[in-house]
Design goal:
Blueprint (H helix, E strand, L loop, with lengths): L12 H12 L4 H4 L5 H8 L3 H29 L1 H17 L7 H29 L4 H28 L4 H6 L2 H15 L7 H10 L1 H4 L8 H29 L5 H26 L6 H20 L5 H25 L4 H33 L3 H18 L7 H4 L4
Helix pairs in contact: 1-6, 1-7, 1-9, 4-5, 4-6, 4-10, 4-12, 4-16, 5-6, 5-9, 6-16, 7-13, 7-15, 12-13, 12-15, 12-16, 12-17, 13-15, 14-15, 14-17, 15-16, 16-17
Length: 409
């Protein structure tokens, strides 16, 4: 067993479940809130579509870089300091948006939030596998559902906050409050689950290079296949977060109405993220469920592109089921590849690291296609095609070959 998995659990399952939810639900509101407020923000700051896309692009890139740095941060800081320090960055980034009257401030605060989220979402999956080794599919589904649920809150409540009398800056900054509320419980719970000190992790790495060193993962073809396919798949989420609300506002929808549509998308994502891993838990082979989720994405994007106003809610629900299920299943598949929580967590971090960097390009690509064609149709069809392409990659995730693909040097 690795250093991270040899310490007994000292926190009740209910407390651990609560802290995972409270931490995770704060990782997406800052990202989903600006979309429904796009026209208001653009009018106040003069941002065009390309500049506005940086509110999604920059934090996604930083989430990716954070995924690469997470194993080192875990060794140097320990899980408690890394997670709590990162949550403080998220709270600070949200709070500073109260001064977000310029595009520079908004983009900088998006980067600050993205840097904070990066380490948290890269470290938590490994901790979940360590703390809940016999219930990983359920816990990863819950983790993914909380991510999507946080996105729903951001998309729905920020437009409503403007109706209640807050400025658009305050409606973005208010998401610092739930992060601050989560901080004490996160510190308390993470101090009680028996995590080793950074020095112990470093010592274990020196004495057990085969089990603790994760640099060899970079030399595995499967690692890069996970990175590429996860990045392409998650680009669909990034594009919808950035452009779904502005897209429907071009069809006459208000900020609140389009925000509600993003919230419906997020709720469908959350429900799917919770249920699909539970259904997939009956078999070690998750490919059928992954391909189903990807096909639902392709259908949802195609409906948006070709018949955007025919049945928008149905289209968005189909898309949300595909996006949410696919994300949580990818988290699970990455953890499935290795039995060690430390190594599986590191593989998950690497997948998220490179994947989020790739995913960050998707909103920019869709914005470019919109600018060139004068229509959102091409961008949504592009995303449908990407989902179909990823199906071919997912077909290679045969669990019978995991040991061979991830054989240590």
């Amino acid at each position: 067993m690795t250093a991270l998995s040899s310490h007994p659990q000292r926190v009740s399952p209910l407390l651990w479940l609560t802290v995972v939810l409270l931490i995770t639900i704060n990782l997406r509101p800052f990202l989903s809130a600006p979309g429904p407020l796009g026209p208001v923000i653009q009018a106040a700051t003069g941002m065009d579509l390309r500049a506005f896309s940086w509110l999604t692009l920059l934090p996604m890139v930083l989430m990716g870089l954070g995924g690469w740095l997470a194993p080192s941060a875990l060794q140097r800081l320990g899980a408690r300091q890394a997670i709590v320090g990162s949550l403080i960055l998220v709270a600070l980034g949200c709070a500073l948006r109260i001064a977000g009257a310029s595009s520079t401030v908004l983009i900088a605060t998006a980067g600050l939030c993205g840097a904070g989220v990066a380490l948290v979402q890269s470290i938590l999956p490994g901790l979940i596998k360590r703390q809940s080794p016999h219930n990983v599919p359920f816990m990863m589904g819950l983790y993914s559902a909380a991510l999507m649920g946080g996105g729903a809150f951001g998309a729905q409540l920020s437009p409503l906050a403007i109706q209640w009398g807050l400025s658009w800056q305050a409606s973005l900054a208010m998401w610092a409050v739930p992060v601050v509320i989560a901080l004490p419980l996160a510190w308390y719970a993470l101090s009680r689950i028996g995590l080793p000190a950074p020095s112990a992790i470093a010592s274990a790495k020196n004495t057990q290079p085969a089990s603790s060193d994760t640099a060899w993962l970079m030399r595995r073809r499967r690692t890069w296949l996970l990175v590429l396919s996860f990045g392409l798949m998650n680009g669909g989420y990034a594009s919808t977060v950035a452009w779904l609300a502005p897209f429907y506002q071009t069809h006459g929808w208000t900020a609140t109405q389009s925000g509600s549509l993003v919230a419906i998308l997020s709720i469908a994502q959350a429900a799917s993220a919770l249920t699909m891993p539970a259904l997939a838990a009956r078999s070690a082979d998750r490919r059928l469920w992954l391909i189903l989720a990807l096909l639902l994405q392709a259908v949802g994007f195609a409906l948006m592109a070709l018949w955007p106003t025919a049945a928008p809610t149905l289209s968005i629900v189909i898309l949300g089921i595909g996006l949410g299920g696919c994300f949580s299943l990818y988290m699970l598949v990455a953890l499935d590849h290795l039995p060690s929580p430390t190594q599986a967590g590191a593989l998950n971090s690497l997948m998220q690291g490179g994947g989020f960097i790739l995913a960050a390009l998707a909103p920019w690509i869709v914005a470019q296609l919109q600018q060139l064609s004068g229509s959102w149709t091409v961008g949504w069809l592009y995303q449908a095609g990407v989902a179909a392409l990823v199906c071919l990659m997912v077909a290679q995730f045969n669990p019978k070959h995991y040991a061979r693909e991830m054989r240590q040097p």
